[in-house]
Amino acid sequence: MRKRLFAFDAVIYTFILLVLVFMKGSNQGINLIPFDFVREYILKKEPLGFSNIIGNILMFVPFGIFLGMKKTTVCKSIVRILALTLTIEIIQFIFKRGISDIDDVILNLIGGLIGLACYYALSKLKYRDELLLMFMLILFLSMILLILALHFGLFGVYIRIF
Description:
By secondary structure, the chain is mainly alpha-helical.
C-alpha cells in the first residue's frame, strides 16, 4: 500500500512540477548572479517576486520528502536535488520556457532540504505515517491551488494550463 501511495504521489508531483515549470511564457534569459532576482524582488516589494520566492521553495519540499522516504543520505539527497533543479533550468533554457536562474537552483535546494528536515522530524513522531500522508496531501493541494491561481492570473501572472 505504501509503495502504491508513494508511486501515486510521485506521478502527481511530477505532473505538477512539469506544469509549473513548462507552462510559462516563451521568454528566455539567464541569470548567474546569486540572489540577484531575490534582492530585486525584496527591494521592490513586488507581490509577484514574493510568490516566486515562496513558490520555488515550496515546489521542492515534496521532493525532499520523497528522498527522505527513500532513505537516501543527506549528501546523496543534496546531489539529487541539485541534479533535478539544474536539469529543469537547462531544459527551460533550451526550450525557451522562462529564465534560467541560479536563484531558482538555490531556492529549490532550500525547499528540498526543508522537505528532508520535515520528513526526519515527522518520522520521529508516534503516528508518523499518518502525519506524513496528511503533510503531503496538504502540500499537493497547496501546489494545485497555486497552479490554478497562476492560471487565472491571481498574482498578475498567467500560465496556460488548458
